[in-house]
Design brief:
This protein is mainly α. It folds into 2 domains: about 80 residues, no CATH class; about 80 residues. It is about 50% helix and about 5% strand. The chain is built from 5 helices and 3 strands; from the N terminus they run H-E-E-E-H-H-H-H. A 3-stranded mixed β-sheet has the order 2-1-3. It is elongated, with a radius of gyration of 22 Å. The termini are far apart.
């Protein structure tokens, strides 16, 4: 029976986290999906009632469910147990990686900077315009992995490696953007 209840919790957590990623809450009746459509609801035995966790990611589901089932989670898990929601947990809250938040911030920043760079390049009247467009496409667009290149993400060994690649590409974009602005 305990196994069936745990599997039911797993399915509830997974479905709600998949469709409503982001903030997690331990009280399914306090969630207002119209206010913020990014929720995971944790409910049942072993979960604190009324606890709201400001940030959690889908990769935190497996370690959390494994903790509730009292089994060791796989070594390949990248997330951490959402200990803030567990009623039996009394230790320190471990630090949290915010991979998805950083990735989404990178995507937004990339789109804004690329739009600005293309706009400024279009205003250039010298012969350097074509060279700068080529730089944008060869050095930047080919090396930044956004959601449109999702199928290519597996070429990286980890999410950290993907994020680092995008950080380096953003630095190149910022340098090129300064060069473009100085060309005018």
């Amino acid at each position: 029976m305990r196994f069936a209840l745990t599997i039911t919790k797993l399915l509830l957590i997974y479905v709600l986290t998949y469709f409503f990623p982001g903030e997690a809450t331990a009280d399914p009746f306090s969630v207002s999906f119209s206010e913020k459509p990014e929720h995971a609801v944790l409910w049942g035995a072993g979960i604190k009632k009324g606890m709201v966790i400001p940030y959690a990611e889908l990769i935190d589901v497996v370690p959390t469910v494994c903790e509730l089932m009292e089994v060791e989670y796989p070594k390949t898990c990248r997330g951490r147990t959402i200990v803030e929601a567990l009623s039996g947990y009394g230790g320190d809250i471990p630090p949290r990686n915010m991979f998805i938040k950083e990735m989404l911030d990178q995507f937004v920043s990339y789109r804004k900077k690329m739009a600005e760079a293309r706009y400024v390049v279009e205003k250039i009247t010298s012969g350097k315009q074509g060279f700068l467009f080529t730089q944008l496409n060869r050095q930047i667009s080919r090396n930044f992995y956004d959601i449109n290149r999702f199928t290519e993400w597996p070429r990286f060994n980890s999410i950290e490696e993907l994020l680092e690649n995008n950080r380096e590409t953003m630095k190149k974009l910022e340098t090129l953007l300064l060069e473009i602005k100085n060309t005018n």
